[in-house]
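Lecture notes, unit on protein representations.

Consider one protein chain, 67 amino acids long.
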Amino acid sequence: MSVAKVSEISATSPKSFEDAIQQGLTRAASTLRNIRGAWIKEQHVRCDGGRVVEYQVNMMVTFVLDD
């Protein structure tokens, strides 16, 4: 039987939502083992002068605990 835990993280990127997701998962993987998935809870953009300058995602990362 496996037991999983969920952690909420936030990540940003100047490129895209997809890049923010990848940056967040890459960073999470440096600390968490056995990541199994992520649920994108929210997406936001930061604007300056009417232009998008940063993409932000808040996500729930699921990982399986070691035995």
